[in-house]
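Minimal example, chain plus iron/sulfur cluster.
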Amino acid sequence: MAAAAIPLLEIEQVPAPAEPHKDASALTTVDGVTIDPREVAAQLEGLSAQDTIAWAIETFHPRLRFAASFQKTSSVTVDIVSKLVGDPNFFYLDTDVLFEETYTTRDALAARYGIEFQRFAGISLEEQAQLYGDSLWARQPDACCGIRKVEPMREALAGVDCWVSGIRREDSQTRAGAAKFGWDKRFGLWKLNPLADWNESDVWDYINEHEIPYNPLHDGGYPSIGCTHCTRPPGAGGDSRSGRWVDAHKTECGLHG
Ligand code: SF4
């Protein structure tokens, strides 16, 4: 008997956000404060990461969420945020195929700072295989990221006004123009990138100075760490993210549009 056909899944099939997208240039009022995104981005450009995050906490908390990937920038963000606010809303996306070292880093940071990282996840790996076949990440990585990252991200960001990422302009060409603040069209809320202008030395100097737990895979040749199936040490001459999805024409998981 012929095997049942496995349906193709397109990332566009992931449900659209409930809220219509706003114009990125629109003025928006939050708790009586009017935000002009271009003006704010320009002002934040000259501020430290600490002052940038402090502004976001003052403006948006508690409708503000901090994403944690448990890479080196998460270590920095957790330390800064924990010194600024007592009840930070941290979350992470558990794809169920993260490295063991990533989970131990989560636990080490949680213990050190006394915080909880709220977990968001998509359907189980078993259900994904039943619906779309084995190893979707190898055949349709955009669809796999849509299920395991983008859709849980929508859930994580529901009901908040701003989220905070750890991306840096130095990460890759696709991130070189990242503003410190702007409207996130994909998820329909504000996005803050307080470490956008940090370089590699800035990150490690901060981690070492404050003796913060960090993902040990960074010491094993992984400058960028995602899922086990899609992360390799980068080749010679590649940027820090060139070890991600090495067998696919893909540079982002769909969280940073
Ligand atoms: S990084 Fe790979 S395994 Fe992880 S969600 Fe994306 S395609 Fe799937």
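Residues 1-21 have pLDDT under 50 and may be disordered. Residues 95, 97, 137, 141, 144-145, 148-149, 226-227, 229-230, 253 surround iron/sulfur cluster (CB under 6 Å).
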